[in-house]
Write a structure and sequence with these properties.
The complex is a heterodimer of chains A (116) and B (112). Chain A contains no helices and eleven strands. With 116 residues, chain A is mainly β. The model of chain A has no long low-confidence stretch (mean pLDDT 91). In chain B, strands 1-9-8-3-4 form a five-stranded mixed β-sheet, with no helix packed on it. Chain B starts with 8 loop residues before the first strand and ends with a strand. The chains are: A mainly beta (116), B mainly beta (112). At the A-B interface, strand 4, strand 5, strand 9 and strand 10 of A face strand 3, strand 4 and strand 8 of B.
């Protein structure tokens, strides 16, 4: 159990367009989901914490108006990169926490974004 | 800042045990040690976690020192597919407001 999916797995878009990434917990309800960004040869950088039914909490330096997060249900969170630019090209990874007295995170496979 | 320190890289021969150390000298009494790994171009994968007792599952064993200031992840019979970056992080068992922080991890290379 504890499977998390992401869609799409990779996307190429033109500068100025918006891209939506979906994160789903397939076999459990996730009260909290996390969104990370990872640049080549670097560690995961937490962007925001997404709680079901409430506004996301963004880490310092992450623009909330550029990276829109919606956590409308216990199994789905979405990250929208608005007006994407080449510097937004990265590997975006979500994770979900079961919320049953555990902090164990289950990660999605990641979405590779390339902005031309 | 990450609350753990790990060696940046290690290597291991296939079939041998891989022992990955982690220092967490500022760990508090209610914090667990969690291990994840990330194979190249994939999302991280949960491996194991523990509080103070040694833990074992189908993937690995976790040995935590008595003072809980350090731990070792053991892959008993490493295979080429275990080549990955291994992350050790600390966090509470639950609490709702925990913010996970990943450091640089240890890049483990398993060679034939």
């Amino acid at each position: 159990g504890a499977v998390v999916s992401q869609h799409p797995s990779w996307v190429i878009c033109k500068s100025g367009t918006s891209v939506k990434i979906e994160c789903r917990s397939l076999d459990f309800q996730a009260t909290t989901m996390f969104w990370y960004r990872q640049f080549p040869k670097q560690s995961l950088m937490l962007m925001a914490t997404s709680n079901e039914g409430s506004k996301a909490t963004y880490e310092q330096g992450v623009e909330k108006d550029k990276f829109l997060i919606n956590h409308a249900s216990l199994t789905l969170s979405t990250l929208t990169v608005t007006s994407a630019h080449p510097e937004d090209s990265s590997f975006y990874i979500c994770s979900a926490r079961r919320g049953r007295g555990t902090e164990t995170q289950y990660f999605g496979p990641g979405t590779r974004l390339l902005v031309l | 800042d990450a609350k753990t320190t790990q060696p940046p890289s290690m290597d291991c021969a296939e079939g041998r045990a891989a022992n990955l150390p982690c220092n967490h000298s500022t760990i508090s009494g209610n914090e667990y040690v969690y291990w994840y790994r990330q194979i190249h171009s994939q999302g991280p994968q949960y491996i194991i976690h523990g509080l103070k007792n040694n833990e074992t599952n189908e993937m690995a064993s976790l040995i935590i020192t008595e003072d809980r200031k350090s731990s070792t992840l053991i892959l008993p019979h490493a295979t080429l597919r275990d080549t990955a970056v291994y992350y050790c992080i600390v966090g509470p068992a639950s609490g709702g407001s925990y913010i996970p922080t990943f450091g640089r991890g240890t890049s483990l290379i398993v060679h034939p």
